[in-house]
Design a protein that fits this description.
Blueprint lengths: L2 H4 L19 H17 L4 H7 L5 H10 L17 H14 L1 H21 L2 H12 L5 E4 L15 E5 L2 E12 L6 E8 L2 E8 L5 E2 L14 E11 L12 H35 L1 E2 L2 E2 L4 H29 L5 H26 L10 H13 L4 H13 L6
Helix pairs in contact: 2-5, 5-6, 5-8, 6-7, 6-8, 8-9, 8-10, 8-11, 9-10, 10-11, 10-12
């Protein structure tokens, strides 16, 4: 019998019941704690007010602060990016979304969509022009793929780029674009005679506008816009030279979906912690409701799904760091973790009772935010079909 097997196991930690922190390196914990402390200081005291007003004031200041802690494009290398591991990036997403999905969306769109597209498919000149400022938060980026009538079928996009001499002229509209009206550069995907191409569009180019979308009941502490491209003329060097076809935007989406796998568990954790705390202090029939069997059953089920989801995120992160993560595995993670996160939020609401709908608690805010996370960057149905095709070899998309 080994010495290790004779040692008593460490005490049970209700906040880390599977002991996942034991798998993290000191650098991983440092990244997590830095982001957690930033969110506790700069988001949590104000986010309920932002959500209620439907605004994200000071978004440019927040972006610069996120840049200063290395959270923008953090898994990319060079050009001022942190070069963090996939697990570290995931831990950051979890902590950001534990504060609010809108804040994690700001970071995901900046780093995993706009910066990732330029870093992977851009020319060296494009990388030098945009990435250092984006990593520092001095330049905010957005990602234009979804259109008003085109969501899950991006191959049918109507935005078109035509050649005019050596220039490109873009015309079309994009919808539900995070960061759109505060962006300095928009990565826009458009049909061309040679296939779908990506363009780095400076947002001060004549013909480009980004009206903000109002009246949202989800992701209210987030900037969401429409992009309008009215014969936007761009030089030849605006096109991303490294890719043609849908594999370009879809690879960006896969990278961003990976962050959602972690982030959704942050929202779930916030709701779970609120439910545990509430159950210890709220009394009914002469004692705390946490002492009743039905409440404990709910909390146990929530804890199981929460930490299974975090374990899954850890596993996918290790695979990404090893260069072995497949898009189907990302779909597996997004499908499971967002779906379970919503159920955890709904169960937490039942434990808080009427207080569960109050913005004094985070539960309803996270629940409504996750309704957006459920459908953006791939609906439940699309991820089910991705997995269905992988399991059967049969394509059921059409």
């Amino acid at each position: 019998m080994s010495t290790a097997s004779r040692q008593a196991p460490p005490p049970f930690d209700p906040e880390d019941p599977l002991g996942l922190d034991d798998t993290l390196e000191p650098e991983d914990l440092a990244v997590r704690d830095t982001v957690r402390e930033w969110a506790a200081d700069r988001v949590l005291p104000y986010v309920a007010e932002w959500y209620e007003s439907g605004e994200l004031p000071g978004v440019r200041d927040l972006a610069r602060e996120l840049g200063s802690i290395g959270a923008l494009g953090m898994s990319l290398t060079g050009y001022g990016c942190a070069g963090a591991s996939a697990v570290q990036y995931g831990l950051a997403c979890l902590e950001l979304e534990a504060a609010d999905s809108g804040i994690r969306s700001l970071v995901s769109v900046q780093g995993s969509l706009a910066m990732y597209a330029i870093h992977r498919f851009g020319s060296e000149e494009q990388k030098q022009r945009w990435l250092p400022g984006m990593a520092a938060g001095e330049i905010i980026g957005c990602f234009g793929l979804t259109e008003p009538d085109i969501g899950s079928d991006p191959a049918s996009m109507r935005t078109y780029a035509k050649k005019d001499g050596t220039d490109w002229v873009l015309t079309g509209r994009k919808m539900w674009i995070t960061n759109g009206s505060v962006a300095g550069v928009a990565v826009v995907w458009a049909r061309t005679d040679e296939g779908i191409r990506g363009f780095a569009v400076p947002t001060d180019t004549p013909g480009f506008s980004a009206p903000e979308i109002k009246h949202k009941w989800s992701l209210r502490a987030s900037v969401t816009s429409e992009l309008v491209l009215d014969e936007v003329r761009l030089p030849a060097d605006a096109v991303l030279p490294g890719v043609t076809g849908l594999k370009g935007p879809l690879s960006c989406l896969s990278h961003a979906r990976y962050g959602i796998v972690w982030g959704a568990m942050g929202a779930a954790r916030s709701c779970f912690e609120a439910a545990v705390d509430y159950s210890r202090t709220r009394e009914q029939f002469g004692r705390p409701i946490g002492g009743f069997q039905l409440t404990q059953a709910k909390l146990a089920d929530m804890a199981v799904e929460l930490h299974k989801g975090i374990l899954l995120a850890h596993h996918l992160g290790r695979r990404m760091d090893a260069g072995r993560l497949r898009p189907e595995q990302v779909s597996f993670g997004k499908l499971n973790n967002v779906r379970e996160a919503i159920e955890i939020c709904r169960t937490a609401r039942t434990i808080l009772g009427a207080n569960g709908i109050s913005l004094e608690y985070p539960v309803m805010r996270h629940a409504t935010n996750l309704e957006s996370v459920l459908t953006y960057e791939g609906t439940v149905e699309m991820h089910q079909l991705v997995l269905g095709k992988a399991l059967t070899g049969l394509d059921a998309f059409r």
